[in-house]
């Protein structure tokens, strides 16, 4: 929140200073938002995890306002890696689901402001092997 108090050159310098931290934060959020196996959580734990993921979505929004295209570039790299992983092993869908969840959390904001990464993401959708995976279908 402190970054919003600065303007102009000062804000740009601070954004560049904190850019690596925020990029690492995106990676951490992707890891922390991986869905556990269905049987791993009780109903109460699933609800707590759903709330936790919603908090991560809110954090993605704030992170996007700092990184802008840098976040989209990072997500695109993860998209290519996640699609390659699930193509090798269809059971390895959790990283792709977490990534699609991240895209969904910033979709409205990004759609209005980006003309480079959004079309690239849309063009990559046919490459995603959804199959009958309800988790991937639902999050998209």
TrEMBL record:
Alphabetized Gene3D superfamilies for the sequence: Leucine-rich Repeat Variant
Native source species: Hirondellea gigas
Subcellular locations according to the entry: Nucleus
GO CC terms in record: cytoplasm; nucleus
Source organism superkingdom: Eukaryota
Main location: nucleus
Entries under PANTHER family matching the protein: IMPORTIN-13, TRANSPORTIN 3 AND IMPORTIN 13
Xref: InterPro entries: ARM-like, Importin_beta-like_NTR, Importin_rep_1
Entry keyword Transport: yes
Official protein name in the record: Importin-13-like
């Amino acid at each position: 929140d402190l970054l919003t108090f600065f303007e102009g050159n000062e804000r740009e310098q601070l954004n560049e200073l904190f850019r690596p931290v925020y990029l690492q934060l995106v990676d951490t959020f992707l890891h922390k938002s991986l869905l556990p196996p269905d049987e791993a959580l009780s109903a109460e734990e699933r609800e707590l995890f759903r709330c936790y993921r919603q908090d991560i979505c809110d954090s993605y929004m704030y992170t996007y306002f700092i990184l802008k295209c840098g976040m989209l570039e990072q997500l695109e790299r993860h998209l290519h890696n996640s699609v390659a992983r699930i193509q090798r092993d269809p059971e390895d869908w959790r990283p792709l689901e977490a990534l699609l969840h991240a895209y969904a959390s910033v979709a409205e904001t990004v759609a209005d402001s980006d003309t480079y990464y959004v079309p690239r993401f849309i063009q990559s959708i046919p490459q995603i092997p959804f199959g009958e995976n309800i988790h991937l279908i639902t999050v998209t």
